[in-house]
Amino acid sequence: QGGGLVLVHFACGAFQEFKDDFVKLAGRVWDPQLRGHDPHGTFRVQIVDSEHPITRGMKEFETIDELYTCLTGDTPIHVLATAKSKVDEKDYPMAFVLKVEKGRVFHSVLGHDVKAFASPKVQELFRRGCLWAARRL
User: For position 126, what pLDDT does the model report?
Assistant: First the structure.
């Protein structure tokens, strides 16, 4: 009915028994058959859509986190930010949005622990993501 949903970090692994339905809501879900993530550490997050209300004016930033490489799904998503794996050199979505019927979903796999949220840029990304999902941005 037009509500919002924000998914943080391993929320993508919720509801494994319902993953075929959950992926329609989450956009991408954790696939335990895939490599889980790069080793915990520092990596750079690239803003790939600097015109979206969530990421408008944001620049790339570094964070200390787990770079997830384990998402699967074919639900249409709009990627806002990516990061390049140090293991396989591929880019993976770190933040994206989708619309589900009248609702809005902001999904970011960032946020493993307190250190991951220490970055003011990560905090700003989630602040804006929450505002956007709630139709306040």
Answer: 98
